[in-house]
């Protein structure tokens, strides 16, 4: 005891030799007050839900709140929220509190509350409704034959993931009306989809949101707009349909362009993965495609509405593997049944909603027939979330998947290596396989 005291006294003496007593005392008081302030701040922040009588989903830990496992990649963002959504449903709770760092957020599990949020969001998405028209799609389809041919020729020679990415980049450039450097686009997608501290911090605190991922796409749009204006050019594409051209519209179009390519590529891979698991489903789909095109010939836009089984297959893929597995909503308007505090974020586990047994029978089973029966509630099928881009994302991604599937299944049977088990990547914000499924494309002799 005396040895320890003497040692401590010696340390204080050595500090005193370098710092005068007044400075030392001031520093000690400052540190004490800082630690006390930090403790009180954490206590105040992490008792937020207790004060308004909302049950926490889990106990938070400073400084990450409830995100420790997600940030350190012990769990994925979408799976983490799906687990808590399932627990809330099991306990019959309408919602539960979560902390994104120190930001209070509410995970909504009650379907009536979710429907109110959807209704509010619908009032704010009309700006994008007219961007994609039948004429725009048909105009692009008439120019796509070389893209289809290149994709089919390369499928057995190069990694299919890159081929699909190039396919959707090329089709998107036709639909949107501008060209983007592939290298910069890949960097943008990588930054947007990565699961990182910076990414989650910007979700919690939007003032730190990074717009750099869209810089190169925005620059491409600006160049194309200037060229059209200078040369008095009009095209039949999405860019031409922009009703209002300003920095916000260009940024939104940049986001939609990147989302379209990323969602289409990933959703097509997961759809083909499911088809490779079930010959019966694949054969029925191939039969529907062949019957239509044997009768009608070359692809036309209206033919896509005459493929009901194709529509069901795509919807079932989007249900099981939603491109937007989590929706984060700012509390900007009073919603009946939810707290009126504007500091709260609302979270929806789309992945949880679409894979819960109360919402879909045998949710883990891939069953396109559920969408043929026309009894799927619209507010339970939200693969693109409920944000302002959801309708154009749905239309573009669905169109792209259908075009890719028609092109591939017209020439190939899709199989998969025996014994393969799909493992999801915990280091990504979106649902992605950790490794590409070992799909094999077997040429069909007609």
From TrEMBL:
GO terms for cellular component: endoplasmic reticulum membrane. It comes from the Eukaryota. Belongs to the cytochrome P450 family. The lineage of its organism: Eukaryota, Metazoa, Ecdysozoa, Arthropoda, Hexapoda. Keywords: Endoplasmic reticulum, Heme, Iron, Membrane, Metal-binding, Microsome, Monooxygenase, Oxidoreductase, Transmembrane, Transmembrane helix. One of its GO terms (molecular function) is monooxygenase activity. It is a peripheral membrane protein. The chain crosses the membrane at residues 24-43. Its main location: endoplasmic reticulum. This is Cytochrome P450. It comes from Acanthoscelides obtectus. It is found in: Endoplasmic reticulum membrane; Microsome membrane. Its cofactor is heme.
């Amino acid at each position: 005891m005396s040895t320890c005291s003497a040692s401590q006294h010696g340390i204080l003496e050595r500090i005193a030799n370098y710092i005068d007593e007044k400075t030392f005392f001031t520093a000690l008081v400052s540190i004490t007050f800082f630690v006390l302030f930090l403790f009180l701040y954490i206590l105040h922040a992490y008792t937020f839900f207790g004060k308004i009588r909302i049950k926490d989903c889990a106990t938070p830990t400073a400084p990450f709140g409830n995100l420790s496992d997600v940030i350190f990649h012990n769990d994925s963002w979408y799976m983490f929220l799906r687990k808590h959504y399932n627990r809330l449903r099991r306990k019959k709770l309408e919602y539960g509190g979560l902390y994104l760092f120190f930001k209070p957020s509410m995970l909504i599990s009650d379907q009536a509350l979710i429907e109110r949020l959807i209704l509010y969001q619908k009032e704010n998405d009309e700006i994008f409704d007219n961007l994609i028209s039948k004429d725009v799609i048909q105009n692009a389809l008439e120019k796509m034959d070389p893209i289809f041919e290149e994709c089919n020729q390369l499928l057995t020679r190069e990694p299919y993931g890159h081929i699909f990415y190039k396919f959707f980049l090329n089709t998107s450039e036709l639909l949107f009306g501008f060209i983007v450097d592939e290298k910069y686009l890949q960097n943008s997608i990588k930054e947007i989809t990565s699961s990182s501290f910076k990414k989650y911090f910007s979700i919690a605190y939007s003032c730190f949101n990074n717009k750099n991922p869209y810089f190169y796409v925005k620059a491409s749009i600006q160049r194309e707009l200037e060229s059209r204006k200078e040369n008095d050019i009009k095209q039949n594409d999405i860019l031409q349909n922009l009703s209002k051209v300003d920095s916000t519209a260009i940024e939104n179009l940049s986001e939609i362009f990147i989302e379209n390519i990323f969602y289409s590529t990933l959703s097509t891979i997961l759809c083909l993965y499911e088809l490779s698991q079930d010959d019966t489903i694949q054969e029925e789909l191939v039969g529907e495609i062949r019957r239509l095109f044997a009768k009608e010939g070359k692809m036309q836009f209206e033919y896509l509405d005459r493929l009901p089984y194709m529509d069901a297959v795509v919807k079932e893929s989007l249900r099981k593997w939603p491109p937007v597995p989590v929706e984060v909503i700012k509390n900007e308007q009073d919603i009946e049944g939810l707290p009126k505090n504007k500091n709260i974020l609302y979270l929806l586990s789309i992945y949880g909603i679409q894979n819960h047994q109360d919402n879909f029978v045998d949710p883990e089973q891939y069953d396109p027939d559920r969408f043929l029966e026309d009894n799927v509630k619209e507010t339970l099928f939200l693969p693109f979330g409920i944000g302002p881009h959801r309708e154009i994302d749905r239309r573009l991604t669905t169109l792209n998947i259908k075009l890719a599937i028609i092109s591939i299944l017209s020439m190939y049977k899709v199989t998969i290596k025996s014994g393969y088990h799909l493992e999801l990547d915990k280091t990504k914000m979106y649902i992605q396989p950790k490794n590409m499924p070992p799909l094999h494309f077997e040429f069909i002799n007609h």
